[in-house]
Amino acid sequence: MPYQSRSGHRPARRDSKGGGRGTGPDPARRVAYDVLKAVHDRDAYANLLLPSMLRERKLAGRDAALATELSYGTLRHQGSYDAILDACVDRSISSVDSDVLPILRLGAHQLLNTKIPPHAAVSATITLARRVVGTHRARFANAVLRKVAARDLGEWLDIVAPDGGTDLVGHLAVTHSHPRWIVEALAEALGEDPAGGLAETERLLVAHNERPQVTLVAKPGRASIADLVNSGAVPARFSPYGVYLPEGDPALLREVKQQRAAVQDEASQLVALALSRVGLDGGDAHWLDACAGPGGKAALLAGLAGKRGARLVAAELQPARARLVAGAVRRSVRDAGRTVVADSTRPPWRAGSFDRVLVDAPCTGLGALRRRPEARWRRDAGSAAELVPLQRSLLDRALDATRPGGVVAYVTCSPHLAETRGVVGEVLAERSDVTVLRAADYLDDVPGLAVGDYAQFWPHRHGTDAMFLALLRRRSG
Fold first, then answer.
1. Does 413 participate in catalysis according to the annotation?
2. What is the pLDDT of residues 426-470, one digit of tens each?
């Protein structure tokens, strides 16, 4: 019987020849275990580690699909599984050693959120456990997972989740596998109060745990939507440069191989497009991406600039990331951009040098939890406050870098109020030379964006990352 996740995704089954050449007789589960352990032990990024591990161990097809489902599925639902596992061990789950804990989470995901038969899920997981943690600890894992297998996910959540009538935030946090502080922050950004119910917040949490579709961007001047549609993609809802890939590996598309197209979330495309759509009086030849790494928005901006005869300066503080940016910009429209290693809080350019400036500020990343599920466990309630001074400085210096009449786009891949409206409000309170433009007016094909003068994308409304956008025009004075 083929394995299938409860979301409808059909992960891999190892064929009779053993599939790929990963470590041991069950390469998909071993890859998933190694990813989960690396995320737990050294804060590895699953979206970077998993593809490289699949290539290194030569996993493809069904084995690669199973490894992907087990890795991302376990990370998305980790909070729920930990609450359940805590009820199944004699001591707190926090005391379980870091070699065994990924085994327990991996087994719980197979038992509670896939259609893998329970006996097969336990047997395969314990076989893996014997290889990676030894017989003694494998016996412990076996005992715990057999307790987990006694109930389905709904029954377990009825037992371990707080009562929704007395602690709605806690109930949603456990049921939908998010830290409590993130549930509170998202509810605040959506304008909901637990006393009045958190219906939309819950829809957002559900969306975070669904597998996102692959979105591509056709680089302006290098590829067209028609090219990608001919390769099997579907035109995006909102972006004139975007397509969705219903199935398959985007790296196998001809346009991606030729670096004429790339994977990029639709909201990331649209915030760059909004900046390019603002009308300017006077010159429009000098554009800046002040925080350009790893280069996706910079590549799109370079293409848009090149179509107008303008040039983009892509600035990135970290040399390694700057090299990624340089490659992305170089593969855009020829001679439309250059990359510099620079600290945009202490910029090397003169004030008033640019007509358009993008500040895609470092942030908590709460808007990309669908794609980077482990990020919800990496941050804490103080993370946003720690980033705010940097975000405020970047925006302030970006406004200084913009000529009178020019425009700045302040963007974060986070809806957290401290990082979005809070940062913009604090900077505006210190300056008398800025006019706020109504951002949604430059994205009028996208419904439900406007939050006053700002724009906020949402996964459950728009099928995109939760990207925030403010457009600010520099005035004389």
1. yes
2. 999 999 999 999 999 999 999 999 999 999 999 999 999 999 999
Let me know if residue 14 belongs to a domain: no
Do 95 and 129 lie in a common domain?
yes
446 and 325 in a common domain:
yes
Are residues 420 and 385 both part of a single domain?
yes
Q: Enter the tokens of residue 152.
A: 């389905």
| C-alpha to C-alpha distance for 460 and 190, rounded to whole angstroms | 12
Residue 193 domain boundaries: 161-208
Q: Is residue 349 in a domain? A: yes
Annotated catalytic residue: which of 133, 207, 325, 413? 413
Is there a domain that residue 12 lies in?
no
CA dihedral defined by 168, 171, 177, 178, rounded to 10 degrees?
A: 30
- Distance CA(454)–CA(202), nearest Å, equals 23
Exposure string over 17-27, b if 16+ CB within 10 A, otherwise e? eebbebeeebb
Residues 193 and 252 in one domain: no
Is residue 419 domain-shared with residue 334, that is, in the same domain? Answer: yes
Tokens 């549930």 found at: 183
Q: pLDDT per residue over 2-26, tens digit each?
A: 344 444 444 433 333 333 444 556 9
Tell if the pTM clears 0.90, that is, is over it: yes
Same domain for 251 and 171: no
State the binding site for S-adenosyl-L-methionine.
291-297, 316, 343, 360
Measure CA of the first residue to CA of the last residue in the chain; give whole Å.
Answer: 71
Residue 190 CB contacts under 8 Å (≥ 6 apart), including other chains: 200, 201, 204, 415, 458
* Claim to verify: residue 331 and residue 461 sit in the same structural domain: yes
Q: Amino acid identity, residue 237? A: R
Q: Count Cβ neighbours within 10 Å for each residue of 69-88 and write b for 16 or more, e otherwise.
A: bbbbbbbbbbbbbbbbbeeb
The total number of structural domains that make up the chain: 4
- pLDDT of amino acid 91: 84
Question: For residue 294, is the peptide bond before it cis, meaning its omega torsion is within 30 degrees of 0?
Answer: yes
User: How far is it, in rounded angstroms, from Cα 406 to Cα 268?
Assistant: 21
Radius of gyration of the chain (CA): 24
Q: Quick check: 114 and 68 in contact, CB under 8 A?
A: no
CA–CA–CA angle 61, 66, 71 (5° rounding)? 130
Per DSSP, 212 falls in state P
Residues 453 and 336 in one domain: yes
Helix (H, G, I), strand (E, B) or coil at 8: coil
